[in-house]
Backbone:
């Protein structure tokens, strides 16, 4: 799958969900690990929480990625405008769904880890990693 031309230097991926506490933070952590040269990432939410879900931090530590220093951020027009690719993690809460603000975006439809047991959060983490790796590979091949 070809995304763009060869001049992708300085391109940013924006991962969004409602609270920016779990899925989008996990995706940001994985993309930092797998990002092709010249690509950066940020995550944000339409209603960010004060802190990242501690279970998300724990399951990422299990795979050697520390997201404990990342902070939930509010989705802004500037973040949307400055991002080359926008990925909605999935909207379980339609009234606050950030996808309505994104315009052209990918929707991954990933289950929210909030309030889930660690075993389920690990499954969600693994699903996000698979999708991020696929995205990074497609970007590298383009």
Residues:
């Amino acid at each position: 799958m070809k995304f763009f031309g060869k001049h992708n230097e300085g391109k940013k991926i924006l991962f969004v969900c409602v609270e920016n506490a779990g899925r989008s933070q996990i995706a940001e952590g994985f993309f930092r690990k797998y990002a092709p040269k010249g690509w950066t990432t940020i995550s944000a939410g339409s209603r960010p929480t004060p802190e990242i879900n501690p279970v998300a931090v724990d399951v990422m530590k299990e795979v050697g990625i520390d997201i404990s220093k990342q902070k939930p951020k509010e989705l802004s027009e500037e973040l949307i405008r400055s991002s080359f690719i926008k990925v909605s993690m999935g909207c379980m809460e339609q009234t606050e769904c950030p996808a309505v603000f994104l315009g052209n975006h990918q929707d991954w439809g990933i289950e929210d880890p909030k309030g889930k047991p660690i075993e389920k959060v690990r499954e969600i983490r693994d699903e996000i990693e698979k999708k991020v790796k696929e995205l990074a590979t497609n970007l590298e091949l383009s």
Summary: Confidence is low (pLDDT under 50) at residues 1-9. The longest strand covers residues 11-17.
